[in-house]
Amino acid sequence: MVRRMNELNTFLFNILLFSLFFNVGISLYGIFARPSLIKKIIALTIFSDTANVLAIIVGYRGWPSPEQPPIPPVITSTEPTSEDLIRFINRAVDPLPQALVLTAIVIGLAVTLFLIFLTLQVYRLYGTTDVRRVARLRG
Amino acid sequence: MYYLSIGVLVPSLLGLAFVLPLLGMIIKNIRFFHAYASITSLYALIVAAYNFNIVVREGPKAYPFGGWWPPIGISYEIDEINSLIALLTASVMFLITLYSAWYIRSLKDAPYYYTLLLGLEVGMLGCIYTGDAFNLFVMLEVMSISAYALVGFHRNKPEAIEAAIKYGLFGAVATTIYFIALVFIYASFGTLNMADLTNKVTLFWGHNLVSGLYYGQIYAATAVALALSLWAFTFKSAIFPNHFWLPDAHPEAPTPVSAALSGLVVNVGVYAIFRFFYTIFNPFSLMSDLRDMILLVTLILGLASGLIGAFMMVVQDDIKRLLAYSTISHIGLVLIGLSIGSSLISRPDSQAFVDGLTGAFYHLINHSIGKSLLFLASGVIIYMAGGTRKLDELGGVARKNPVLGIVLITGVLQLLGIPPFGGFFSKYLLYVSYLEAGAPYISVIINIISAVSLLGYVRLLYSVFFIIPKREFVRTSRLPLAVLLVLSVACLITGLLSPIISYWLRGFVEATTSKDGILNYWVQGYLVFWGG
């Protein structure tokens, strides 16, 4: 049973990693090849979200065993005993990537908002958000 | 034990910058904002000079934020090279802010303009001072967002908006790619602190580390991380395959911003390449063969962008576009100098190694001063010629104003590399270093780049100086000319004092890139905090 669970775990983990890198490919295709600015921005958010999930995965701890899944990096008792600390160190996921991702999300929000404003301004000035037509209108 | 001035500069400057939009709601007098921005950037210059003085007296120093000691919290670390580049950045930014008071005299959006300009300065100083690879990402974003917004500052001008969206979209991809590189670094080394990473990659001290030792396949992960971060840094410094945004973005920005982008922002990418491949993944590290390959790649990219920038300069008919291509060419030259550290080209303690790096940083300084001088001068020229940027329509502007003419010739000679000016000595050092390293064909290519770019500069000088003026030009005020004179005196100083400057720079490079220097970077950035 435990072996089956571990195999399943590995399988799911590999699918996750594969889909992350597949996502990177798709989103880069979207950014570089799609003509619509809105679609480019959507692809950019997919790209940065993929990077964020990758960071979260790095902080994730493979299950110590199926009966003992990892716990959030929070000590629940106010006066932790050494047993609590040992349990915490052995099972808690790494909190640092989560802090990094939080920062990256906030920065990504600012960049996305700015790009959307620029797209709106492109639409006001050119009447289209298609980069091919924008290039043609510019002459 | 540590100096407050190292850590306090960037956050306080950020606060001073972002209070401006609020002040803009209360205060309607535009002169207040000119004075405020100038005083703020003067403050940054004073603190940067103080930090430089600390390093010269006592060597590298670190500042841990919030009392969390280095591998746990964020720390800023200054050493000889980065405090020098920060001093350069702060001083040129001070002059650019002064010039802005003339340039945006009639603009209603002055508080927003100055917020973004000071935000750009904060981002650059943060990138340069930081001792933490993730904080470098954050500061790159602070710098980049300010830069995107400044490029699109004339928001009703279609070309500016188009250039800004091109720069912003691909810039966001580049910084996200750097974030992925950081994920790989964190996954394999368990830390993002630069001093701690330096130790783990070089293994000065291998036991009882706060952040563990290695996780997984560090060699493969490092290869991926270095390749990805090189992509991001070459984007920020506009090296050949990633230079496509620069000729659109730099000319469309307001002229003082063009000067800041072309003269200073590209330096940050070059500095990050230096920090990654000379301090963290240094010549003595466990994975030095990866580093050697990457530096060979940067050598090829540097040669390519030097040549492409020089050739594209010749065919431009827009004065700001011509200067933007010249930036690509000069950053290519700086990168050629930085690439000498590959052990396939020179040994780490050899004369060629030190000469090449000295030449690279000397050229970086010369280019920053000369290029911001030329961009600021082009702002005056465009104003006097009535808003046109076409070289053919400038028609001898500089003849009407002798000060402008002298300043322009100074800047061109500085970038071209004619003896009394600094550009000659730095190009000469680059040339000599590759001769010493036994790669004379690269020295020849450096000469070819200079020779080709001569054509572009001659076109510039011809259209603004050698044509007899036929029409009337607008008269300009004294403030921009005073700023330009200060910069041209700086050009002359970098040339006349070249023995002293190159001696100092050589000392800085030796102190930073020798094995003792790298050890000291780690000791000051990590070990002193843990009682070592």
Please summarize the sheet with the most strands of chain B.
Answer: 2 strands, antiparallel
Q: Largest interface, by Cβ-Cβ below 8 angstroms: which chains and how many residues each?
A: A-B, 32 and 28 residues
- SSE pattern of chain A, N- to C-terminal: HHHHH
How many structural units, i.e. domains of chain A?
A: 1
Helix content of chain B: over 70%
Low-pLDDT regions of chain A: none
Structural class of chain A: mainly alpha
Gyration radius over CA of chain B: 22 Å
Helix content of chain A: over 70%
Number of strands of chain B: 2
The arrangement of helices and strands of chain B along the chain is: HHHEEHHHHHHHHHHHHHHHHHH
* Whole-number mean pLDDT of chain B: 88
If helices are DSSP runs of H or I spanning 4 or more residues, what is the number of helices of chain B? 21
Shape of chain B: globular
Judging from the principal axes of the Cα atoms, what is the shape of chain A?
elongated
Tell me the span between the first and last alpha carbons of chain A: 67 Å
Radius of gyration of chain A: 22 Å
Explain this structure to me?
The complex is a heterodimer of chains A (139) and B (532). Chain A is mainly alpha-helical and 139 residues long. Chain A has one domain. In chain A, 75% of the residues lie in helices and 0% in strands. Chain A has helices spanning 2-33, 37-59, 82-91, 96-126, 131-138. Chain A is elongated, with a radius of gyration of 22 Å. The mean pLDDT of chain A is 85. Chain B is an all-alpha fold. Chain B has a domain at 312-496. Chain B has 21 helices and 2 strands. In chain B, α5 (110-129) runs parallel beside α11 and α17 runs antiparallel to α18 (440-466).
Note the main attributes of this structure.
heterodimer, A: 139 residues, mainly alpha, 5 helices, B: 532 residues, two-stranded antiparallel sheet, 74% helix
